[in-house]
Amino acid sequence: MKSKRQQKILELIKDKIIITQEDLQNELKALGFKITQSTVSRDIKELRIVKGHDSAGNYRYIAGDGGFDGKQTSPDHYRELFSKSARSVNYALNNVVVKCYTGMASSACVALDSAFGDYMLGSLAGDDTIIIVTGSEELSKTLTDELNKLL
């Protein structure tokens, strides 16, 4: 049942503009799934679904890692997603700060974690800002240089 529900979630976010967990829950209920908000939230996290802009500019849920079948999205996809989401990249000591367009930090952070995870100890995204912690100032500078090449 869980795999059917999660497959349906991916189909829904691909075919419809779904903006909130409540919208997604209502769509699933209309299709006969008995689902709570907390289950929707867990499914979103497990499927690595994020909010971002689609090719038409609509702000909505999008699959963050290539989808349910486990196929990973190409590194070029993540680099493109980052370049369309980020405005600036700077570092101080072992921290990198990425400024993004409003609402895009979560999507950009998924892209960064996937494409540049080897540089990081961890990352944290807000609405329009990402903080990345690296192991050294040298790594922060290298990562900043790499990310600035994408802008």
Summarize the structure.
The protein has helices at residues 2-15, 21-30, 37-46, 75-85, 105-116, 137-150; strands spanning 49-53, 59-63, 86-92, 95-100, 120-125, 129-134.
- β-strand amount: 15-25%
Biggest sheet: strands, sense, closure?
4 strands, antiparallel
Structural class: alpha+beta
User: Which spans of ≥5 residues are poorly predicted at pLDDT below 50?
Assistant: 66-72
Alpha carbon gyration radius: 17 Å
Q: What count of helical segments does DSSP give? A: 6
Mean pLDDT over all positions: 86
How do the strands line up in the largest sheet?
Answer: 3-4-6-5
User: How far from one another are the termini?
Assistant: 42 Å
User: Percent of residues in helical segments?
Assistant: 40-55%
How would you describe this structure to a colleague?
- The protein is an alpha+beta fold and about 150 residues long.
- Helices cover about 45% and strands about 25% of the residues.
- Strand 3 (about 85-90) and strand 4 (about 95-100) form a beta hairpin.
In terms of topology, how is this protein built?
Layout: H1 2-15, H2 21-30, H3 37-46, E1 49-53, E2 59-63, H4 75-85, E3 86-92, E4 95-100, H5 105-116, E5 120-125, E6 129-134, H6 137-150
Antiparallel strand pairs: 1-2, 3-4, 4-6, 5-6
